[in-house]
Amino acid sequence: MHQGLGLEAYNALPTRRAVHAVYECCYSVVLATDLAGGRPFADHAALFRQADALLFSLGEDSIDRVLQAYPHIGRRPRSPKSVCEQCSVWDDDPEVMTQLNSEVRHYAERFGFGFVMFVEDCCAHRAMAGILDRLHNDRDTERKVVRNELARINRARLERMLGPEGGYYNW
After folding, report:
1. CA-to-CA distance for 20 and 22, rounded, in angstroms?
2. Would the CA dihedral through 85, 108, 95, 75 be positive or negative?
3. So where are the chain's domains?
4. Among 72, 150, 156, which residue's Cα sits nearest to residue 107?
5. Whether CATH 1.10.3330.10 fits 7-162
6. Measured in whole angstroms, how far is the alpha carbon of residue 50 from the centre of its chain?
7. Is 127 in contact with 86 (CB distance < 8 Å)?
8. Residue-level pLDDT at 119
9. How many CA atoms lie within 13 A of 31 on its CB side?
10. Interval 36-67: pLDDT, tens
11. pLDDT at residue 1 in the model
12. What single DSSP character describes residue 39?
């Protein structure tokens, strides 16, 4: 994943590379293409607002394609590259992970799409609580929750892609 390239460098990238950088964050060709086409951005906030607007304008079929690209909970335990990602959620107790995986399957059966959640740490118990809480939603409510979670995940990934204002010196 592109990390710390800075807004100025992102604005200056050739279109194909700009699309690729954003696609790594959001898994949507449409969103990545439209965001790259909206350059230049004056500041990070402008890019984040546009990314949110584009995400919330996507059709349900596009959101389903995005959801298919997300790795499952616990797929990459303790991965330093996947920190703050649901695939790094882990617990050393195999029973906790078995229960978590069971609830993820139950979620997919109930709603017809995979579970996504913005995580700020790798705590399996918090992820489990999130799944159990969201299982009470109806399908329409859960689709809205999913978009909000995707927006939070995209924001975190775009922040990593851009890095601090000005980027890092190696870009």
Report:
1. 5
2. negative
3. 7-162
4. 72
5. yes
6. 16
7. yes
8. 84
9. 29
10. 999 999 999 999 999 999 999 999 999 999 99
11. 59
12. P
- d(CA 103, CA 165) in angstroms, rounded, equals 40
Please provide residue 132's backbone torsions phi and psi, each rounded to the nearest 5 degrees. Answer: -60, -40
SS (H, E, C) 134-171: HCCCCHHHHHHHHHHHHHHHHHHHHHHHHCCCCCCCCC
Transcribe 73-111 into DSSP letters: TTSSTT-GGGTTSGGG-B-S-HHHHHHHHHHHHHHHHHH
Give the whole-angstrom CA distance, residue 50 versus residue 148: 14
- Give 90's strand partners: 123
Instruction: Write out the two tokens for 150.
Output: 């995707």
Please report where in the chains the tokens 């997300």 appear, as a residue.
70
